[in-house]
Amino acid sequence: MNNSGSADFSDKLARIISVIFHPLLMPVYGLGIVFWAPTLYNYLPFDVKKLVILIVLVNNVLLPLSLIPFFVHNKVISSWFLNERQDRSIPLIIATILYGVTTYIIIRFPVPFFLKTFFLASGLLSLIATLINIRWKISLHSIGAGLLPALVLILSFKMYTPLLWYIIPSFLAAGLILSSRLQLKLHSPAQVWSGFITGFVGFSLFVLLLQHLS
After folding, report:
1. Fewest CB within 10 A of the end CB: N or C in the chain?
2. Extents of the domains making up the chain
3. What is the pLDDT, as a whole number, of residue 12?
């Protein structure tokens, strides 16, 4: 009984972690780090921060989520939770297109170039996840888990600011996310670790390359 109760608690905790750190929410958390970490970006006008976060919440969180019931009702996908690889194809394509729209909007704003590269890199990661998903079920949660510590490290080096109290939590959160996906048996270790590496390395390379080309 104790083992069963412990397993149930672990599964519930893993589900809560999976919801809190849903892939659609990771760019919002990333923006929170960029805007409120003790760097120069912290001094951006509040109205600018609010507008950018609002665009992302509407275009990249609420809009994709609102389409899920329509897809389920019309049997485009079999489940709300997108646990099957085949169910992820159309939502991933739409998410990638919406990232393209968001990037187009943000590029036209008079905001720091780092913010523009953040959205470009996030959109490219979404495209990579879409392409990989054609053949293989990579962990989307783990891609998001890799993005956050990569962002904090890049921000720390770029701003010459020791963001230790952001670096440590970002890696701890990544560990919790990866563990939760394994606990729920929704991914193999290879799918989880490949997702993390894709998110961490992919985001880092895209941002650094775009910064270099600017």
Report:
1. N
2. 2-213
3. 93
